[in-house]
Amino acid sequence: MIDSFTVAGQFTPSGRVIDIREFGNGNINNTFLVTLDSKGENHFILQRINTQVFQHPELLMLNMRTCTEHIRRRLQHAPLSAGRRWEVPRVLLAHDGKDHWLAPDRSFWRAISFIEGSQSFETIKDIGHAREVGHALGLFHTLLSDLPFDRLSDTLEGFHITPRYLQRYDQVLAKYRAGQYPEVNYCLKFVLERSAWAHVLENARAQGRLFLRPIHGDPKINNILIDAATGLAVSIIDLDTVKPGLVHHDIGDCLRSGCNPLGEETEQWETVHFNSDLCQAILQGYLLMAREFLTGNDFDYLYDSIRLIAFELGLRFFTDYLEGNVYFKVRYPEHNLARALVQFRLTESIESQETTIRSIIRDIG
Ligand code: ADP
Ligand code: GN1
Ligand code: MG
């Protein structure tokens, strides 16, 4: 791989690069924190975009620009963030003025400003943190609510279209030779029992009940940064999957990630559960910001979206395991199987609390 100092040098505004270290726990891209010896901003984030996943990375950069410019304009005219610190990541240009650098080995690199004084968490600490996570997503959706969705390109075709993942799963399964783990049988049965229902959001969209809007695509806990001093949400990062979608994809993803206290990487999948108090707090934070633009139909599909995105992520991990780990980064061969079990167990826990979750939605709706 190309030397990271060479890459960082393409974006360095001033000062000398004194340190580069791997950063965060992303499953797709490679992220580095770059430290400079300059007096002003002395950090930035350097990322190598996985171009097997994002086949048109220049469109991804364009979406990021459309989205962040729109948000900045809105914040200037109507400061929705009401006195709190709210940061929008800035794209740093390479020396040739482009928003990325294509290395001689064809790897695609970009740099963004570092949000100082913030923390990223893998799981929710407490109810206050949960409200802030909901607030951040609600603010993000509100700020983008007047951006026509067709101003954004579809940079990841089929993303969050559950029936497409089922199709892929069927293709992969047709070639799969039975393995040695009993957990695989649990997963196979799990998917089969839910494959008809898994069309629920796409059916609602086809019937005109739900419609496309700009979405984040990946608002899991570690993409919502918390101010280290105040504990308030300060930014939502990882804008690679900003594209047209259903707000339900985001709400479902935020809740499946936020309400799983053991975290999505736990090895104790059998004890994974969905915490409905955290769910209530995230939804309260979200709706304080976003209630105004949600329709009655939107509310009707919230429960399904929570159940579906947990199921969908489990299906994506399981398919990747069966296919030989071609999409998500793994640390060992069964890693995606372990991750799938976590999401499926979480889905079961959501299903067993359907009445409670639906009444939380009704009471705060
Ligand atoms: P990935 O697409 O691989 O998930 P992210 O953009 O989410 O990459 O970055 C990985 C991690 O790096 C984040 O979870 C966060 O901890 C940290 N990070 C990324 N961008 C920033 C930023 N602009 N400021 C501060 N921390 C950041
Ligand atoms: C991936 O890149 P990262 O880790 O933020 C994935 C998400 C999943 C998530 C699960 C482009 O996100 O859809 O929900 O892993 N991103 C893509 O942790 O597929
Ligand atoms: Mg991320």
SSE diagram, text form:
Layout: H1 4-9, E1 17-22, E2 30-36, E3 43-49, H2 57-77, E4 91-92, E5 101-102, E6 108-113, E7 118-119, H3 127-144, H4 162-175, H5 182-194, H6 200-206, E8 213-215, E9 224-227, E10 233-236, E11 243-245, H7 247-258, H8 276-290, H9 296-300, H10 302-323, H11 335-352, H12 354-364
The structure holds adenosine-5'-diphosphate (ADP), 2-acetamido-2-deoxy-1-O-phosphono-alpha-D-glucopyranose and magnesium ion (MG).
2-acetamido-2-deoxy-1-O-phosphono-alpha-D-glucopyranose (GN1) binds at residues 26-28, 53, 218, 220, 238, 241, 253, 264, 313.
Notes on the protein architecture:
The protein is α+β, with helices and mostly antiparallel strands. The chain folds into two domains: 1-116, 2-Layer Sandwich (Phosphorylase Kinase, domain 1); 118-365, Aminoglycoside phosphotransferase (APH), C-terminal lobe (Aminoglycoside 3'-phosphotransferase, Chain: A, domain 2). 44% of the residues lie in helices and 13% in strands. Strands 1, 2, 3, 4, 5 and 6 form a six-stranded antiparallel beta sheet that branches. Strands 7-9-10 form a three-stranded antiparallel beta sheet, covered by helices on one side. The mean pLDDT is 95. Bound molecules: adenosine-5'-diphosphate (ADP), 2-acetamido-2-deoxy-1-O-phosphono-alpha-D-glucopyranose (GN1) and magnesium ion. Magnesium ion binds next to loops. The site of adenosine-5'-diphosphate has 20 residues, from strand 6.
